[in-house]
Write a structure and sequence with these properties.
Blueprint (H helix, E strand, L loop, with lengths): L18 H5 L7 E3 L2 H10 L3 E6 L4 H11 L2 H10 L1 E6 L4 H15 L6 E5 L5 E5 L13 H14 L1 H15 L14 H14 L16 H14 L2 H16 L13 E2 L7 E2 L2 E2 H18 L2 H17 L10 E2 L2 E2 L2 E2 L7 H8 L1 H10 L24 H8 L3 H19 L7 E2 L2 E2 H18 L2 H17 L1 E3 L5 E8 L2 E5 L2 H18 L2 H17 L33 H16 L2 H13 L1 H6 L5 H11 L4 E5 L5 H11 L7 E5 L5 H5 L14 E6 L2 E2 L6 H8 L2
Parallel strand pairs: 1-3, 2-3, 17-18
Antiparallel strand pairs: 2-4, 4-5, 6-7, 8-9, 9-12, 10-11, 13-15, 14-15, 15-16, 17-19, 19-20
Helix pairs in contact: 4-6, 9-10, 9-11, 9-24, 11-12, 11-17, 13-14, 14-16, 15-16, 17-18, 17-19, 18-19, 19-20, 19-21, 21-22, 21-24, 25-27
Length: about 700
Amino acid sequence: MTTSTSAGQPNRLIHETSPYLLQHAHNPVDWYAWGPEALTRARAEDKPILLSIGYSACHWCHVMAHESFEDPAIAALMNSLFVNIKVDREERPDLDAIYMEAVQAMTGQGGWPMTVFLTPEGRPFYGGTYFPPTPRYGMPSFRQVLQAVADAWRDRRQDLEAAGERIAGGLKRSATIGPSDAPLTAALLDRAARNLLQALDRREGGLGGAPKFPQPMTLDFMLQLYVHTGEQELLEAVNLTLTKMAGGGIYDQLGGGFHRYSTDARWLVPHFEKMLYDNAQLARTYLHAWQISGNAEYRRVVEETLDYVLREMTSLEGGFYSTEDADSEGQEGRFYLWTPDEIASLLGEEDARLFCAYYDVTSAGNFHEGGSGRNILHVTHDVPATAEALNVTGERLSQALRRGRDVLFAARQKRVRPGQDQKILAEWNGLMLHAFAEAGAALGRTDYLAAATRAGQFLLAQMAFLTADGSLRLYRSYKGGEARLPAYLEDYASVALAMLALYEAVLDPHWLQAAVSLTQVILALFADPAAGGFFQIGNEHEELIARRKDFIDSAVPSGNSLAVEMFLRLGKLLERTDYTAHGSAVLQMLAGAMADQPAAFGRLLCALDFHLNPGYEIAIAGDVEQEDSRALLTQVWRRYLPNSVLALHMPGDERAASLVPFLAGREPIKGRAAAYVCRNYVCNLPVTDPAALAAQLER
């Protein structure tokens, strides 16, 4: 049976909540979402499956949709030859990981949009990424691909099924990785750092050349290692990268927040989509650099980035949206681009001259896709150097820049905004909640703490539920009042870490208990007691062709990296040696790989540093609402103490004390809040004076 969709009539995707799937709900393609209905039909009709995977902010996904999926003739071919399934990679990272690995194995490369052809049992036998509607650039047309695959399925089916079996077998190997022979020592950290420094672009910062990605996890690793070693080269590498990114086009100079990546080596021309996970991780990296250096520019970037998220990416319910598109009005980057004439009309001749000089706006333009003369705002020289070149005072230039940013931002707000994917993902919300909690405490921003608290309440109220036995479960995705899809390892671990960060920022034991509850679910559903490590999908999940373990830190941390960090932190805070053992076992599995390929294990290297370089266990005894307690806590919060843990014993409240053993016996001294600092099983004398606490934390 072949089903077609009538012109103008929606297909099955109209019933989905994913904005990406809804973008395809009026295609003439007879799309299914992934699920039993599609798979059953493929088996019943003995048809191969055409699996198309993408995401809503993906520029080339939009291009292929317009060129091919909206074409009635191509859609008719798809409908007659295949069972067609559309997947949002952000909702279903399990399917994306499996079939991306398969496409990379078959073609040597991957990306989105991803097109994979499967047997009715779901085994991949052919795939690729973008296919054009007509042959070009050495690529066959999508029509040619469809017909060739259908012909091969008819004439050489046994060969294709055998290939699918081989590929499916290879996909299962990630679950069988064994422990490395390399000992877990500081030598691994040093080797990893040396390899990263060798890859550093010493002129523009970042690793390697174009295209260039921010890689906040590797930057955080270098900052952590600097704290313990004092190695200036590490700090200089991070400072160079952060300064260049903050001045580049990859950073939104008017509205705050980072675009996905730079197409060139100098951070100038980005792909303009803004992803929640990038901004969550980069806000923390800039915060850590500010804590170390006191550089006011780093603090500015943190606050502008988080203010952007509060302004544009936060739902009324308190969760955080996923992405903003690169395109508006059918053009990539249009929302962010400026011409000199536009700026002059808004600012007047003299202020426009100063503004354009500082942000390198010229009549020639620096963004030439879709026409010349359009500019991405970016900074090539600081205020003093620019003021000297323009023969004005620094204050005059700064005044023009402040006014210019305000006026241009207000004008830009009247433009057609890029599309927004308003689904809320547990994993990404955990990353952003973590950033708000940490920044709120460090910067004394009560609005950030309020945002973190609201997000935590939202996650536990709308994206979590209790099973009959009282176990806490999470959903992956939420939109339009509906939570759906069982959560993955990365969701549980990210949210658990966020709950722990929120506890250390507001000191309410409720959040600590939530972190512990989620940790127990990870052990129950995701742990592999036979081979070690943690599966991406739980043992209650639907059966797929492979049950993978994800270890690679890419744009987001891997589920295993997040889980390792969580087990090590909770193990230290709760004095749970079993938790510590779970974390260290995964570190041992990847010991050699981390040192040799550090760019692929940035978050895991941070966890290894935590394991090898113990920080402080800090207990504060006092009322968190009182000034004496706050003065002590501020000494902790404002410092970069990446391997330390913090707990509070409120007089009369034994909830935290029942969870955190090192709070036992910790009481105020002579009616004043007291700080108890221990390290490596050795404790200092308790102190009540903030300066005395500062001295202990600086040793």
